[in-house]
Write a structure and sequence with these properties.
The complex is a heterodimer of chains A (161) and B (193). By secondary structure, chain A is an alpha+beta fold. Chain A contains two helices and ten strands, in the order βββββαβαββββ. By secondary structure, chain B is an alpha+beta fold. Chain B contains six helices and eight strands.
């Protein structure tokens, strides 16, 4: 059994194979996995909000898509990952409640996903796979050994990206 | 200081919700003194049995002078119990029928509404609530919605746990009230803080 490292809400961590990373019960938050297949190192960040510049209280970098991805890259490089080889897989950004209003407060999942994609794009990191949106929670596990992202949801079959 | 005030609001709100529940099922319902905790986001799901524990979340959005959201959450087991009390039958299967789902939504709406009306009376400000929205899923996923709102103001969330009991069976419910930044100030100001 490989060691499974937990990433909490507004949290990030890195690992190298055979270790693996997981974040439990992603809802409107987005889980972003960055992976370097040559060194079999990976990082995961569980972001809650799209943009750190819009919020006064922004010391916790892992809370935001923009600063969270930057911090994750820094940490990955420090354990020997190659910046130019990084690819991404993302999941989450669900709309947990079926609102029929355009209230921004309620579209947060979608906005988190958009912001994560834009940030990755601006850094030239390719998104290899994504499972975002819809209306249910996801637990994700990433195995650097194989590069596979497991997605588990209530009452749904296991998805492997 | 602000924590104590919010705790007191929680206390009063939960008491009111218990009365509403008692009226609804036409029987005596006891309530424990609520546990109030200010938790880091990382710890939040542990309070309700872990991020993957399946819970029922009922969410109401607030408008008017106070904006934000209010959530009432309970474990699936408690939800079955409440529905049984209300409908006088015994749901034991894993899935609720449409009828039971709508009863559950109404229970959440009444409990959350009672909580809100006591808050509204206390601060003497009108709060308009939306229709209730319900989701049954992993606790982490459901909690992400209020946690994100808290995330805009800080790194911790206030959660109030209340235990209702009737005839030796307990129903654990959790209230989460999330005013927006501006509304938070409105509440504190109207309380003279």
């Amino acid at each position: 059994m490989s060691v499974m490292i937990k990433v909490g809400m507004a949290d990030l961590n890195v690992c190298a194979a055979p270790e693996a990373l997981t974040t439990l019960g992603l809802g409107s938050c987005v889980g972003i996995v960055l992976y370097d297949s040559s060194t079999k190192t990976a990082g995961m960040v569980h972001v809650m909000l799209p943009d750190s510049t819009k919020i006064k209280n922004n010391e916790n970098v892992a809370k935001f898509a923009d600063t969270g991805i930057d911090a994750l890259i820094g940490k990955l490089i420090s354990i020997g990952a190659n910046r130019n080889r990084l690819i991404a897989k993302i999941a989450g950004g669900a709309q947990m409640f079926a609102f029929n209003s355009n209230n921004d407060m309620l579209r947060i999942g979608e906005r988190n996903t958009e912001a994560s994609k834009l940030k990755l794009q601006s850094l030239g990191i390719r998104i290899l796979a994504e499972d975002t949106g819809l209306d249910y929670g996801r637990t994700i596990e990433f195995y650097p050994e194989t590069g596979q992202l497991y997605i588990k949801s209530v009452g749904k079959p296991l998805k492997i990206l | 200081m602000q924590f104590d005030v919010l705790k007191e609001i929680g206390n009063i709100g939960a008491g009111n919700a218990t009365t509403a529940l008692s009226t609804m099922i036409n029987g005596k319902v006891d309530m424990c003194v609520p546990k109030v905790a200010l938790l880091e986001f990382k710890e939040l799901p542990d309070m309700v049995g872990g991020a993957e524990n399946i819970v029922v979340g009922i969410l109401i959005t607030l408008e008017g002078e106070v904006n934000g959201m209010m959530m009432f959450m309970m474990e699936q087991k408690s939800a079955y119990h409440l529905v049984n009390l209300l409908m006088g039958n015994s749901v034991t299967n894993e899935n609720f029928t449409e009828m039971e789902l709508s009863a559950l939504k109404e229970i959440g709406n009444i409990i959350a509404g009672a909580y809100l009306s006591s808050l509204s009376t206390l601060i003497n400000i009108r709060i308009d609530a939306s229709v209730p929205y319900m989701s049954i899923d992993m606790a982490g996923a459901i909690l992400s919605v209020p946690a994100i709102e808290f995330g805009k103001v800080g790194d911790k969330a206030l959660i109030i746990e209340t235990q209702f009991s009737k005839d030796d069976s307990d129903v654990n419910g959790y209230f989460i009230l999330i005013p927006t930044r501006e509304s938070y100030d409105v509440i504190l100001t109207s309380l003279g803080l």
